[in-house]
Amino acid sequence: MKKIKFVVTVTFIFSVLFLYCANQKIYDVVVYGGSSAGVIAAVQAARMGAAVVLIEPGTHLGGLTSGGLGKTDTGDKSVIGGLSRDFYQRLKKYYDDPKVWKFEKQSDYNGYSENEDAIWGFEPKVAEKIYEQMISEFNIRVLKGERLDLNNGVLVDQQRVKRIRMESGLVIRGKMFIDAAYEGDLMAKAGVSYIVGRESNITYGETLNGVQKNNAIYHQLKDGVDPYIIKGDPASGLLPGVHGGPPGEEGEGDHRVQAYCFRMCLTDVAENRVPFSKPDEYDESRYELLFRNFEAGEDGMPWLPGMMPNRKTDTNNRTGFSTDNINMNYDYPEADYETRERILKEHEIYQKGFMWTLANHQRVPEHIRSEVSRWGLAKDEFTDNGNWPHQLYIREARRMLGDYVMTENDCKRVRIVDDPVGLGSYNMDSHNTQRYVTEEGYARNEGDIQVSPQGGYLISYRSIIPKRNEIHNLLVPVCLSASHIAYGSIRMEPVFMILGQSAATAAVMALNEDLAVQDVDYGRLKEILLNDKQIVDLP
Question: Cβ distance 375 to 268 under 8 Å?
Fold first, then answer.
């Protein structure tokens, strides 16, 4: 018994000493959020000689890139450079080995080409493996399972973040900070200005922002879908997933954010397939709109499986009722952890129930049931989470309000910035933001926009740093300063990696020269970025 007490006492002492030492260390660069942007930011800072710590609230690195979005949204691939392209080149080298093609031949995957330097479709577990390798090459300290204390976790003094405290009590001190999380908690708790929701078109002189009823063409419910529990009876109440308020005026701003979903990794390989199961919390009424949409004439497959290596998919939303959980995420961006976990769980139950319904319910057309039944969750992915993705697709949460706000006019190159730190090129893409009842009494989706910028466009350095009168040692490459519709294009994972590298470069420059991030010499920054193979000029 004395020996046990001695061991417990020694363990406790060492734990206290570890926590004390950890709390006293001052890092050059603190990266909060192990997203794709966070990993790349940490790697870039470390290879520039900085002492770095990467903090991930969850247990996996890579965010959505390792969380199911393996069919990369790229746009113009030629504008992807630096460490972002290096990541996809590393993936290509991995798939160059015929031995890793377990469930199909290398030649059978149409996303693989011997003549390409990179590959843009990949398995989630492989993406995470590559990120872990990149981190290990620089011996970067990684703290997983550490969430920022949302009550009083950020200490700011003289416009500089001095330290952040985790829920566990761990205190991390740093000279420069990068918020690379999808939610922007560090940014917000540091007192940086931000917005949630859609601006009006008037705010920045745009045409695709705010309420977009006239553009509600894609991923739309069929005409005549009744939204009431008892058809034709408003007094019976609305079906789940439909809100009872007005949709708003065309082009008007509101609080709504585009819908979230999980990007499931599925397979049709029998030996690696886990059939869709019916959740214990299954509520059939949640899918009544789906049934009525089929009855109204929808015959398209309500999911989009983008193929990845080894007969796996990156599964996305398609048609008017699909994996996007419309109306159910408005509270997420500014919520506490308990509320976010509840929203995340609701999304998981909804989507699992949706897939089971498509595969099994008799009110689903037979040709759809037959096709969906061939598929299931990939048995060798997300093995610590029941083969379910560990990352919800937070398509949009907080967006910083910096001295420069990226808008539709930047994406269309009507306006050209003079301090670019990367390029975007993907569609100005917003998924639906609401499902409401029309004046005629039918269910309708609104918010889906898909407009191409017709090429690459420049992203301003000022859009990833706070206003000059706010915080001087913080960079924000994910929840950057952009309007809702411009963010819809910028928010692609390759771009987040590009901006993560540029943010880290500027952070180390500011650190070495004892400057505010707002005072970094752009000419010198551009020189370093170009030397590191970033692309910062229009094609």
Answer: yes
**Tally of structural domains, the chain:** 1
Residue 364: inside a domain: no
- Residue 23 in this model has a pLDDT that exceeds 70: no
Closest C-alpha to 411, from 423, 402, 400, 419:
423
**Domain extent for 479:** 2-197+460-531
Phi and psi at residue 454, to the nearest 5°:
60, 40
- Under 8 Å between Cβ of 309 and 123: yes
CA dist 321 and 304 (Å) reads 12
Distance (Å, rounded) from C-alpha 35 to C-alpha 321?
29
Q: At CB < 8 A and 24+ separation, what contacts does 336-343 make? A: 336/150, 337/147, 337/150, 337/167
Res. 18 pLDDT band, cuts 50 70 90: low
- Nearest 10 degrees: CA dihedral of 405, 410, 411, 417? -100
Residues 302 and 318: their CA atoms lie apart, in Å, by 5
Overall average pLDDT of the 351-357 stretch: 98
Q: What is the reported pTM?
A: 0.95
Q: Is 183 inside any structural domain?
A: yes
The DSSP H or E segment spanning 474 is strand 474-475
pLDDT tens digits, 121-130: 999 999 999 9
In angstroms, the Cα distances linking 72 to 88, 302, 375, 382, 491 are 10, 20, 21, 19, 12
Rounded to 5 degrees, φ, ψ at 89 are -70, -35
Q: Domain holding 478: CATH number?
A: 3.50.50.60
507 and 47 Cβ atoms separated by less than 8 Å: no
For the segment 436-462, what is each residue's pLDDT rounded down to a tens digit? 999 999 999 999 999 999 999 999 999
Strand partners of residue 315: 305
Among 166, 109, 114, 144, residue whose Cα is nearest residue 39:
144
Look at residue 13 in the predicted model and tell me its pLDDT.
58
Q: In 261-293, which positions are buried (b, 16+ CB within 10 angstroms) versus exposed (e)? A: bbbbbbbbbeebbbebbebeeeeeebbbbbbbb
Q: Report how many helices (DSSP H) and strands (DSSP E) the chain contains, helices first.
A: 13, 22
In this predicted structure, what is the pLDDT of residue 393? Answer: 98
CB atoms within 10 A of CB 172: 22
Q: How far is CA 210 from CA 202, 214, 378, 435, 483, in A?
A: 9, 11, 38, 15, 10
Say if 524 falls within a structural domain.
Answer: yes
- What is the pLDDT, as a whole number, of residue 24? 74
Residue 263's region, left for phi above 0, alpha for psi from -120 to 50, else beta, is beta
Half-sphere exposure of 37 (CA within 13 A, CB side): 30
Residues of the chain by 3-state class (helix, strand, coil), percent to 5: 35, 20, 50
- Cross-strand partners of 451: 428
Domain membership flag for residue 435:
no
